[in-house]
Amino acid sequence: MWLKRVFACLMMCAILICGPALGQAQSDASSNLVADAATLSDTLTEVQTGIYVLRLTNVSPRDGSFDADFWIWFRWQGSDVRPDQTFELANGVIASRSDTEVLNDNGYNYAAVRVQGTIYHEFDVRQFPLDDHTLTIEIEDAEREATNLVYVVDPGTELDPKVDVAGWQVGLGRPATDIHAYPTNYGFQSSGEVEAKYSRFSVPITLERTSIAPLFKLFWISLLSVVLGLLAFKVKSDDLDARFGMGVGSIFAASANAFVISDSLPETTHITLAEQINLIAVGAIFLTVFISIWSLRLRYADRDEASVRLDNWSLLIISALYVALNAVVMLFNLI
C-alpha cells in the first residue's frame, strides 16, 4: 500500500515540474507556426506562356467534357516563382504532368511541361447536328494572384496538324490573357480584399461542321419513314392492312429515331435543330394517317373518286409542306 502512495507522489511531482515546460513548448510551436507562415512576394512577375496541342479526344457534348494532351511552356525572370509547378487547369483537372527542369534561355528561366487532362465545357447544342463550338484551355496559377504573377501570350502557341475530331474541322483561335475575379477572398482576411483576382491564359480551339453528312446520317431513317408514309397514298384506303400498316410503322420508326437523338445530347431545355426536324417528320406521318382515315370514310360512302383525289392532293401538299418546313427550320437556326 505504501508503494502505491510513493508512486502517486512521484507522478504528481513529475507533472508539476514538466507541466510548465510542455506549455512553453506548445506556445513556442504556435509561435513558430505563425512566424513560418508563407508570405507572398510584393513583386510582379510576367510569365510568357504558350501551348502546343498534341491531340483532342473524347469530345462529348453529352458529358460536357473533352480530353486534351498538350505541351505548355513558361519563360520568366526571377527566382521567387516556379510557374511550371504551380499552374492549374481553371476549367478542368490535370490527370498527369511530366517532370520539369528549368533551363537558361537568353537570361530567362524556361520550363516546359507535358499535360494530359480533362476539360469541362458547356456545349451549345441548339444547332445539333450542324453545331459549331469553341473549346478553351484555361490556365491559372494556383498560388499567386494577379498582383504577383501575370501571364503574357507567347507567339509560339500552335495546334498540331494531326489533331482531328471526327465530324468537325479543328482550328486554333487567338490565345489571350485576362484577369479573372472570384467573388471571395477564400478566407484570407489580411488581404483586405473581398475578391481574388488571378491572371488567366486562354487558348480557344474551334470546331466547325464542314458538311451535312452528320445530318444525313442522323435523319435518313426519319426521311425514309416520311417517304413510306406518303407512299401509302398510292394504296387504296380500303386496303386496311397495307394502307395503315405503312403509316403506323413509319410513326414508330420516327419515334425510335427521337431516342437516338436524345442519347447524343445533354440535358437541355432547348428544342434542338435535330429534335425540330424529327418532330416535323412525326407530324407529317401522323397527318398521312389522319387523311387515310378520312379517305377510308369516303370509300365507305361510295365516293371512290373523291377518295382518290384526296389521296393525290394530300401526297403533293404534305410533301411540299415537309420540304418547306425543314428548309424554314434550318434557315432559322443556321442564319
From TrEMBL:
InterPro entries: Neur_chan_lig-bd_sf, Neuro_actylchol_rec. Keywords: Membrane, Signal, Transmembrane, Transmembrane helix. The chain crosses the membrane at residues 212-232, 244-265, 277-298, 310-332. The keyword Transmembrane helix applies. Residues 1-23 form the signal peptide. The keyword Transit peptide does not apply. This is Neurotransmitter-gated ion-channel ligand-binding domain-containing protein. The lineage of its organism: Bacteria, Pseudomonadati, Pseudomonadota, Alphaproteobacteria, Rhodobacterales.
